[in-house]
Structure formats: structure tokens, C-alpha cells
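Entry 14. Ran structure prediction on the chain below.
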Amino acid sequence: MNNGSNHVSNTALIVALGNMHSGIQYAWEIAVIREAEAEIYKAFVKCGYGAYFDAARKVFEAMLPLRHLALSRAIENVGYINLLEFASGYDPRGTIFAGDPRQHVVETDLSGMIRIKQALIKQLVGLRPNHRFIAADATSAISICRTTKLLPEGPIAMACAGLLAYLPDEKKNAFIGSVKQVIRRRPGSVLFATSQDFITTHDMKTWREGELGRALFAVMAHLSGQDFYPFPDTAAIEDFLRGHGLSYNRRKQLDLVPGYGQSLEPGLQEKLSSGEIWTIGQFV
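Output, C-alpha cells:
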């Protein structure tokens, strides 16, 4: 992933496409305006996997709305009024939360991406005083702590959905360092992350065993300009968090969204069963 200041993350279009028919508020409009379907189809064709677009779309439409809903539910459950999203892309969560004037939302991303997102939301609902869009480097503690000053006093619910998977080890450590600074300054703050943040070498090997999985990874690498940086295994993830002095718990995404996906074909249901939300917080 090119981390240039003007970079626009084209992988965000996959999220827009996956959420498009989910019924999630604003998801349809975002996907249509950004022409997500056409752009992702072109990426599959360019990578030589055009024949796999329809199958891949089914995977996106099964997994990404569940991730959105489960992450939102986890955030809602802590009851905080402050939400800080890292690499928010085209996910509409911030706009949905900011529809409640009691909530305060700051979305961050690289500058090119966040400018497009702000213009898009302005077109859809107008700009709200409780919803800010900030260009910020999530791996810079100074940048992130400056951003938190835009939120009222009190603990902050931080959220990311896939960001960590694109960060090499030194950047992963820097990002968690930013999170720790927020927790120190705002006691009670927590980070909500997803299983897509904590992919392992085994996860990647399993996905790549089939032609569809290879197609998915090829297209995501094409869109992002890089491959993933997985953890060796789940134990390494836990050691990583404990090494930073952070506590965590894990919960199945399906437990947070009961009944989701029951009408899906068995193969897709199996993929959903592994999705988790990680809550990372207080020092141990």
C-alpha cells in the first residue's frame, strides 16, 4: 500500500461493493457514486480473473456486511460517545453514528482518501458539526493524539477493519504505540479490530489453496499495490499485544449479529464462522 500523502486506497472499493446490497444505511449510495461494481470488475479482468468476479462478489457480500455490523455492535455495546476510526475508507459507519447528535465521530485516512470521503458524505447528508474528516497517519502517535483533541473529554472507541494486515512489523508496532498513547491520555479507551486485521500465514495459505482465493488475493494486491503482512499464527498475535502491555478479548462476529447469513450456502457460512472482533484495551 503506497503511503504517500495523496494516496487513495482502491481496496476501499471492495468494501463499498460488498456492502452495496446489504441494506446498511448509505452503503448503496456510496457504491453507486464511486462506481464500485465497475471498478472492481475491471480489476478482476486486469488481473486475469474476470471469470471469478461473480463468485468473489458473493464472498464480499457475505463477509463485509457482517464485519461492518459486528464491529458497529461492539462499539455500540461500550456506550461511548466518542468514535475514532482509522483508515475508514468507504465504510458508512461514521456517518451512521454521527446521525445521533450525541455522538462525536472523527474519521481518519490518508489525505486523498479522506478528501473523497468527506466530499461524498457532504453530497449525501451534508457536513455535520459532530462528524470530522481528518488526514492522519495512524502509525504516528503525535498525529493521532492531535486528532483526539477534536473529541470531547472521556474515553474513545477506536476502530479499524483490516488496516493492520497492510502494515509491516515496524508499522504495526507504531500503530499500536499510537493506540497506547490514546489509552494513556483517555483512560477506558479501547480499540476494536477485526480478524481481517489479524490474518495469519495459515489463513493466507488456506485461502490461496483454491483458484478463487488466489483471485481474491491477486486483485487485492493489485488494488493496494502490495501484499498482506500476516502474523505467523494466533499465538504471535497474542504475544504481540501482550508485549505491548495490552489486554484483549475475542468474540465471534456471528455472536454479535445473531441470525446473520443463515440463508447463505454452506461454504460461505463456514467462512463467516471464523470472523472475530478483537477488543483491545487496558494495560495488563
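Strands lie at 82-85, 104-109, 131-135, 157-159, 190-194, 246-252, 276-283. Will compare against last week's run tomorrow.
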